[in-house]
């Protein structure tokens, strides 16, 4: 973090509708939320309920129809313009003409961080892309592109890290390793993080708090604190407490399942 201060994310009466007047789709119903600075919050909910929209609103890539969002005293747009936030979305969005190293290094330069080849190489190693440094996105699998995007997002040392299904295209074993090795990177620097995921286990594993959303329009259906030790060791993951929270989240999802929704895991 640049400021050393962990800023809360505050949503006040935030709504989002898409489409022309009279034919509007309401994606986010009026929402009030405070996400504590330095915490990791997971957003889960049925497919199409509005999770990504909520994340994009927090990122400043979408503007609320009504209400306001602040990160500390700043708007998302202000934070984004001074490169205080980073996003890693499902569809990676890497620059196709840049190598893996070039894309990750870009994450640093866009955030006005000094060049640091060792830091870039270490991030590439951590996301398991050593040996692919000189490859371009088209030469990588979908999962590898996602991992490069995560490395790029982390490279700028963001205060706010927004992750939309970052491990969606990653195989189970790699996902497991990333779920272990990446959280210390943002925790160590006290970044605030918001994660959208379809995996209940991943949500409980990574976050301090889980917001379960209703089918569209998204509203808060359940707000569940993950009362586990911050370091999610193998023992924590195998504990009854971990399973109990997973069951609580799954139950909240089932209660609010849309007909086209995902099965609770
Ligand atoms: N730019 C847009 N224009 C019009 N409609 C949109 C736009 N973005 C999202 N929507 C609609 O808003 C609703 C919520 O979409 P969103 O992508 O936020 O859901 P989600 O919960 O992230 O879905 P999934 O879990 O399937 O990724 C959907 O009905 C979607 O079609």
UniProtKB/TrEMBL annotation:
Belongs to the ABC transporter superfamily. The keyword Transport applies. This is ATP-binding cassette domain-containing protein. Keywords: ATP-binding, Nucleotide-binding, Transport. One of its GO terms (molecular function) is ATP hydrolysis activity. PANTHER family: ABC TRANSPORTER ATP-BINDING PROTEIN, TAURINE IMPORT ATP-BINDING PROTEIN-RELATED. Signal peptide: none annotated. It comes from the Bacteria. It comes from Pseudooceanicola spongiae. The keyword Transmembrane helix does not apply. InterPro entries: AAA+_ATPase, ABC_transporter-like_ATP-bd, ABC_transporter-like_CS, ABC_transporter_ATP-bind, P-loop_NTPase. SUPFAM superfamilies: P-loop containing nucleoside triphosphate hydrolases. Residues 9-240 form the ABC transporter domain. PROSITE patterns: ABC_TRANSPORTER_1, ABC_TRANSPORTER_2.
